[in-house]
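Action item from last week, closing it out:
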Amino acid sequence: MRKLISILTLSLLFTTASLFAQNSGYNIKVKLQDSQDTSLLLVSYYGNTNQIKDTAYLHNGTYDFKGKEALKGGIYLVVFQNKQYFEMIVDKEQHFSMETDPADPVNKMKVKNSKDNDAFYEYMLAINKLGRKDKKLNEEYKAAEGDKTKQDELKEKIKVVNEEVKSLKLDFIDKHEGSLFANVLLASKEPDVPTILPKKEDGSDDSTYIYRYFKEHFFDGFDFADERLLRTPIYASKIKRYFTKILVQRPDSLIKESIAIIEKAKPNKETYKYCIWYFTYVSETSQIMGMDEVFVALGKKYYLTGEAYWVNDKVLSRMTKRINTLDKILIGKKAPNMIMQDTLLNLRGLHDVVADYTIVIFWDPDCGHCKHEIHELEPWYKENGEKYNTKIYGVCTDTNMVKWKGKIKEYKIQDWINVDGPRSLTPNYHDLYDIISTPTIYLLDKNKNILAKRLSWNQTTEFIKREYENALKKKNE
């Protein structure tokens, strides 16, 4: 009896150990028909980038991806040496095998021990079939140009195919609720916009309703805190589209919507981190004037309060300096004063300039683009400076006074308020005005508030003209 118990106990221990080994880490076997590749890459999506996670080498006809730690859930790519690839679902099931033909991976795919990938490829086969049908109908539609009856008939058939695609997605979501790919399909859904517009109080159609409805329902079904979605193509692309294409590109609107998304992503550390990084990065590097206001607002809320837990002291120091610099030169704020020496070594203060509009231009005598901008700006200034009550405060970035004076004469800009940046009583102009390159142009109003910045010469003059005409119109109302 004791021997029997010992054997049973030993058997149970071996079984448990075997199950534990099977369920820990990952082991994904890939077999390719007629492939000469010596190795394959396992690649993960992450935001809008790809990350190599593993390499498998050919051994006895099989490529074996294997690791002691489980992979994080997402859609992964198995990449061939010719850069072609097929996708697979990696979630709870991480011990499975896949066999296919590299020339036709979807149609020839065979999956073992992965219900997620069985369902995924069943869906892919069906959606590809509908895609081919849709393509054929659209080609026939174009070929039938001039035959309205035929085109109307084809249009109806295309509608039927589109409905079949919708039904296929909804069926998958219903059958596989909570699975990774079901969540991907949910997240990728487009809002069904109503075709009938509501009426405004005056009885006319509310033409803004479609936009408002689309915006309000754009993220229906999108789980911002599902970390798995971050490792699929949908997470980053949909957020980017919303931020850059759907939202009105005004700082107040972008700040509000960015914070709303970040807070929805907060329950998960990875999605929270990604959303904070994405919105601050995009707003800091944007070429759209005024977007630095978004960067400053998000930076203050998340970086300067310690919420960006992943950044080290060096990065945080850089971010803090950048946020504080840009915060002082946002559009609408009073421009920092500069007191610098002119060509006669007299001190000239920016805030002492009396004008309705002040153009502040930072330029370098050796800068070819500066020469071009000045040559275009100067004739306009001579002709229109008095009309628009405009002055130019030109800050030279070179310490060589002989060279500086020579360029003033050459460019015929003696009528500017010319000052030398390095000869200053006020803090370094690079830090005050975030001068990274030349030329850099700021436009100030009569109170020295920043109207616009980082403009070209023609943008500057057009801005002045528009502001002047708007002020004149308002005065005459």
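Closing note: The chain has a mean pLDDT of 93.
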